[in-house]
Amino acid sequence: ESLLNIRYGEGRCRALLHLLFPEMNPTEVFHIDHLHPRNHFSKKYLERLDYVANSPENLSFYESPEHWDTIPNLHLLNHSQNISKQDTSLKQWLSHSSNNYTPSMLLVSDDNIEFSRFPEFYNERRNALKQRLLNRVFLTTKIDSSPSTMDTDEEIFTD
Question: Which domain of life does the UniProt lineage start with (predicted)?
Fold first, then answer.
């Protein structure tokens, strides 16, 4: 659970994103990108949005770097993808025909890519990433570590 709280700029961030998305070509250079652009979480930007400005609870959620600056809002993009995205909203960027990403590739539903649904996006993606992490890293069954009598790879010496 705490791994998903890793923030942008931490040394472990890139390694964790590669672990979560191993399909990324390891020889290619990837940039760590905020899916919902970080400038959208500035106080100035948020104050223009009625659904945030009129709700102290929403404002608190959107302003919190623990939400917008952690693994659930981060992804690896190659150089050209990162340049094309820049500060474009996630929904707008995903709708570009030149983009080959879909919401499902980012582990979220189509309904939750709007910035107005950032809390739902964050929770949905965090849960999906947690499950992916559990499936890739943690064993769900205990491995028997007792020696096997059937193991023919080991040499047995007797005196």
Answer: Bacteria
